């Protein structure tokens, strides 16, 4: 994010897996309350991302914050002077991972946060069983073991 993400733009940032922002040249805010509207749908994602108290402050005040403040409250994941360079680093890091595992991990995170501890443990045990039977896991384990033998 380089520039202003206000109202709908900030809502888009709220639903992103990762947000990279310039420390001072980026701005975030939910200005809907200033025009008699509410950011209803995106509020769901914002509350999950930064918590109810911080979300309440942003949603009810219409305050505009910079990238540094957005990073401090958890709306932004990375601060960078060169946003494109940082995005490329993150993309290259993610490309090293199994897309199947990242997708399952996203689903796990989304679902576990709504479960009590016992249900979450049961759910995660089932996911572990499923993931251990995938081709991605078999290939990943083989690659890992072969690297260990070569060291």
Main attributes of the structure:
single chain; flat; 2-enoyl-CoA Hydratase, Chain A, domain 1; two-stranded parallel ribbon; mainly alpha; 151 residues
Compact summary:
By secondary structure, the chain is mostly helical. It is built from eight helices and five strands. The protein folds into two domains: 3-94, 2-enoyl-CoA Hydratase, Chain A, domain 1; 97-150.
Secondary-structure topology with pairs:
Blueprint: E1 3-6, H1 8-15, E2 20-21, E3 26-29, H2 40-50, H3 52-61, E4 64-66, H4 67-73, E5 78-79, H5 83-95, H6 99-112, H7 117-131, H8 135-150
Parallel strand pairs: 1-3, 2-5
Antiparallel strand pairs: 3-4
Helix pairs in contact: 1-2, 2-3, 6-7
Question: How would you describe what is shown here?
Answer:
The strands form 2 sheets. A 3-stranded mixed sheet has the order 1-3-4. The protein folds into 2 domains: 3-94, 2-enoyl-CoA Hydratase, Chain A, domain 1, CATH 3.90.226; 97-150. It contains 8 helices and 5 strands; from the N terminus they run E-H-E-E-H-H-E-H-E-H-H-H-H. The protein is mainly α and 151 residues long. The chain is flat and about 55 Å long. The chain starts with a strand and ends with a helix. The chain is 62% helix and 10% strand.
